[in-house]
Amino acid sequence: MADTPIFWDDDDFMDSLVTLLCTDSSTLRKCGHLFAPDDFKPLRGMRWGRPRWNVASAAIEYWRRFHEPVGRMLRSEVLSYVGKTLGQGERQLQETRDYLGHLRSIKVVGPDAVIEKAAGYKRERLKAMAVQEMGRLQAMGELTDQKWREITEQTLVTMDSSLDTVSYYDDLESRLARRRSKSTRQRTPMFFIDPLDILVRGIGPGQLGMILAPYNRGKGLMLLWLSVAYTLQQLNVLLVTLEDTRPEVEDRLDAIIAKMPIDKLANYPKTLTNRFGRFRRLVRSKLHIYDGTEGGISVSTIEQIYLKERERGFTADAIVVDYDDEIQPAVKNKERRMDFSEIYRDLRQLAGRRQLLVWTAAQTQRGTEAMKVLSGDKAAEDISKLRKVTMCLSLGQGDWTSDSIYLWVAKHRFDTKHVGCHVLPDLKRTLIYDREKTLEYMRDHRDDG
Q1: What is the three-state SS of the chain?
Q2: Segment 252-295, tens digit of pLDDT
Q3: Do 178 and 203 lie in a common domain?
Q4: 391 and 279 housed in the same domain
Q5: What's phi and psi for 418, nearest 5 deg?
Q6: Is 449 among the domain residues?
Q7: Residue where one domain finishes, among candidates 184, 213, 239
Q8: Domain interval for residue 232
Q9: 160 falls within a domain
Q10: Quick one: pLDDT at residue 132?
Q11: Do 147 and 176 lie in a common domain?
Q12: How many domains does the chain have?
């Protein structure tokens, strides 16, 4: 490119752009259509020229095939692309492996600025190419009004993919390939609650989940459990706490991770430090906490928090909000049920717009504390919440023991619903699911009716 701008031959800028193309669905939806593999052909003097070209090419091809970021499939997809598609030798493969290792250390700060610069450059290039083509046709006396209109409209369409559709009948091969891809399974993380994971899958990017339970049944603990489980599955989590303060949330998380009674944390700092260290070595993702207990937090505010953290280099894959009664509507309505209708619509749209997994919790009506099966119509204030969520998981009163919990799938738009299972918690250690106690009870009572 003869008129390449200065940032296009900057290694740090290009590494940031490639990282976003590999991992960030917002970047790909906004401008993935603008880029082609040859845009990343190595320029003289750039350190990672060919390996970067390989990685960017594989990421762009993956996006075109599956309409999702390559993400955790990056290494296998890139090495397959380099070895089979391009037929490069062992030396090129090793260079690409080294570059993949280098990319893991990249923390993209100011992603929107990177996108704006790169996309702006590509759009200017498209316009320049259109003008050049018009000039060529004009010189040959072939620039008719029809040709001028075609070139202009085609350029505008190429620059803006916001209205693009997918040809369903012509896209079967792409869907088959997507379903064969391991990333399809990885997109729906597990609960890490054995009997529940056997029954049903959770939610995926762009979907909204709700925990439904009576007062003091464990809604907050379930959301904390999900936050930790997601980080163990390499998802970045933004936890927005609106009811309990940050120190209270941190104490509960420490108890979950260290498997220690919450009232013993201060007495055994070395034990906590050792157990936390072992756990932290297993986790490659991050968990950020926002304390919104002072109030005034709307869904728009939550999105602003997400975007601010993204600008700083932390891009959340999941947002967990504890809990819905503390979320403010954008505009105050006469009836509280209308507030909830707006809040849940905004949460669902946030999940879809940013391709996030979003969880929140809701309280049931009075008089439901002793109920085992809590259906969606038991939601307090507004039962229409159920219509707006992808999945509703309720926490009923179990009949194993006095503190057992019955997890009931009150709704699931894409999997089995109206099924349930028992679990035993350990409330002293703030565990909504005590695996050892639950499995032991199941073994000891397997013959019970």
Answers
A1: CCCCCHHHHCHHHHHHHHHHHHHCHHHHHHHHHHCCHHHHCCCCCCCCHHHHHHHHHHHHHHHHHHCCCCHHHHHHHHHHHHHHHCCCCHHHHHHHHHHHHHHHCCCCCCHHHHHHHHHHHHHHHHHHHHHHHHHHHHHCCCCCHHHHHHHHHHHHHHHCCCCCCCCHHHCHHHHHHHHHCHHHHHCCCCCCCHHHHHHCCCCCCCEEEEEEECCCCCHHHHHHHHHHHHHHCCCCEEEEECCCCHHHHHHHHHHHHHCCCHHHCCCCHHHHHHHHHHHHHHCCCCEEEEECCCCCCEHHHHHHHHHHHHHCCCCCCEEEEECHHHCECCCCCCCHHHHHHHHHHHHHHHHHHHCCEEEEEEEECCCCCCCCCCCHHHECCCCCHHHHCCEEEEEEECCCCCCCEEEEEEEECCCCCCCEEEECCEHHHCECCCHHHHHHHHHHCCCCC
A2: 999 999 999 999 999 999 999 999 999 999 898 899 999 999 98
A3: no
A4: yes
A5: 60, 45
A6: no
A7: 184
A8: 187-444
A9: yes
A10: 83
A11: yes
A12: 2
Condensed to tens digits (0 to 9), the pLDDT of residues 202-225 reads 999 999 999 999 988 999 999 999
Q: How many CA atoms does the CB half-sphere of 446 hold within 13 Å?
A: 5
| Last residue within a domain, chosen from 142, 161, 184 | 184
Residues 117 and 240 in one domain: no
Integer Cα distance of 289 and 307 in angstroms: 14
202 in the same domain as 133:
no
The pLDDT tens digits for 361-410 are: 999 888 888 899 988 777 766 677 888 999 999 999 999 999 999 999 99
